[in-house]
């Protein structure tokens, strides 16, 4: 509930002129008037209020002023995570690669979903999903696991869950290198003309993950089992997006028949994941790898417009959610230091 | 016209103390509606103002809410009621090296910590060498912080914090860390801050520090403001409060004595006289000193014993004596009296020595009154240590025959 309002005369105070030649180190207090004059030399100062109200614009301003801290925290999280492991950075690529391998073998050879180039179909979905999952899981515990600084240093605490999203985004980059390697290995071209859709999808993804992380980070301080609940829910949620199965065909038809297709599509992660697949996988119909090799609708047949609209809606909704999450966070923040 | 840097407006902070803390959703659901708690007001209606450039101490014993107050001022906790207004950038030194990442190097931690405290990378770049030099960690700055000793850790934390150069500096008893030399360095840095006209708000229970560097002090007792004023007045108030609670810690009570404050005999004043009193406030090693205690007895009291104990700056008993040991029995008539302890020579070196002086009954069952005073010795010579032992050196060549 810490409300930090920055007054209109906010701004970087001009740096203090050196206080003259250092006075001899006597124990006499310098007259207050002299000290006050020196203080006045440092120019106008920002005014802040610490009180139990939430003032959103000033919170956002505080966040912006601390953007450097955000960068440091992201860097720290990445450095610390792999500092002491022998394979270091490779783990960030190896880990999803192994998960991918498991799914690939399971659905490609045993459960046989018949999607050609399934590894790319799956990887493009996993890429988006991993960013979301990593961000939300580490964001949820961001406040609790940094209790040391939360209890002792005053700074906008939203930065902690946001930094989790930031570092998840960095890992996302490393993983996309692996995806590019796969694309090259399978000689599969992405949809070059629609590559820009990714920008929308990534923006939507980051904003949505940020909203969820900020909200859950605050809640987790009060209900510590939130983090376990989130883990389980994320596993379930993953099956709600088209990753290991094709959306078109059975799923689409079954949902449409019962008029609940909208429930599937209302999940913000669905259009995001579908956009990734649209760009990287880029195959709407293909002949199944399984006999009798029927023509299989793999991806939704929506046009580019649909993807643009869907992602824009997610962006707008996520921005609103993020602001709401920040207000909730602000209200809960006041007691962080005592709850931790 | 001087402006106000910190305003606390009717600040109250309530902590809810649950008999059993339920921190998970499951437990909260299970215990919904029947989780007994007690409200504990750590702060109640605290209001004060700190002018720009002022140094204000917050005096209070443990549990008086002084740290809570600092946390409310710095925005780590939010007041339950009331608000705190601040002008200018604030940095809080509540714990040195809070937020250090053990896995990262000293260098990386300097940047990270400075950024936590609100300093930009560009500013850190400019001051990096200064920070490292202050912490005296030139050799180790690229080592991981987890290999630092606790002293190195704290030194680095302080070095970063004081280089943030905030308009308002909030300090919680962090000056009590490190060795004495480093402490002096920290204090020097704080005084430099003061001379620059920065506002300092600091918490302590060391009364002499308040006297040394504060313009004013606020006295807190169990969450409530007992008063504020110039250092001397505030310290007197604080001592009085401690005495009322029977907690005057720095008064030595001989073992086995039931300390009962009895106003039968009251100490009116304690004077420390030594050559140069008036021209300088300190003694030189080996100079004579007289401690004279003026008292008033309400009615005749038999067998009074006056005592005097000198403590080292770190609190160890250096010397203790009383009129019983010195075989000076005294039956006090009603009215005023004086007891002088005359030292022909005080062979101590540098330091501010607290002295406890009091009057009790000869069997030790009643302590009538006691005071704490302090005298300072400044050593102009270059000998080291705490006692000025008389010594001469002679060096000569010895020829072997």
Structure description:
The complex is a heterodimer of chains A (340) and B (401). Chain A has helices at 32-41, 56-65, 67-82, 90-110, 118-140, 142-145, 147-152, 159-185, 197-222, 226-238, 250-257, 261-266, 269-280, 304-333, 336-339, and strands at residues 47-50, 285-287, 295-297. Chain A is mainly alpha-helical. Chain A has one domain. Chain A has a two-stranded antiparallel sheet with strand order 2-3. Chain B has 401 residues and is an alpha/beta fold. Chain B has two domains: 4-243, P-loop containing nucleotide triphosphate hydrolases (Rossmann fold, 3-Layer(aba) Sandwich), CATH 3.40.50.300; 252-377, Coagulation Factor XIII, Chain A, domain 1 (Distorted Sandwich), CATH 2.70.50. Chain B has helices spanning 25-30, 66-74, 106-116, 121-135, 150-162, 180-195, 207-213, 231-244, and strands at residues 4-18, 37-51, 55-59, 81-87, 90-93, 168-171, 199-204, 216-221, 224-229, 265-273, 289-297, 304-311, 317-322, 335-343, 351-361, 367-377. At the A-B interface, helix 1, strand 1, helix 3, helix 7 and helix 15 of A face helix 1, helix 2, strand 4, helix 3 and helix 6 of B.
| Number of distinct helices of chain A | 15
The CATH topology label of the largest domain in chain B is Rossmann fold
- The total of beta strands of chain A comes to 3
Q: Any idea what the shape of chain B is?
A: globular
DSSP summary: helix tally of chain B:
8
What's the CATH H-level superfamily name of the largest domain in chain B?
P-loop containing nucleotide triphosphate hydrolases
Number of domains of chain A: 1
CATH class designation of the largest domain in chain B:
Alpha Beta
Q: List the uncertain runs of chain A.
A: 1-26
Work out the strand percent of chain B: 25-35%
Order of strands across the biggest sheet of chain B? 5-6-7-3-8-9
Run of helices and strands of chain B: EHEEHEEHHHEHEHEEHEEEEEEE
CATH architecture assignment name of the largest domain in chain B? 3-Layer(aba) Sandwich
Average pLDDT reading of chain B: 80
Going by helix content, strand content and strand pairing, the class of chain B is alpha/beta
Order the strands across the largest sheet of chain A as they lie in space. 2-3
**Residue share in helices of chain B?**
10-25%
The pair of chains with the biggest contact is: A-B, 63 and 64 residues
Strand content of chain A: under 5%
How do the helices and strands follow one another from N- to C-terminus of chain A?
HEHHHHHHHHHHHHEEHH
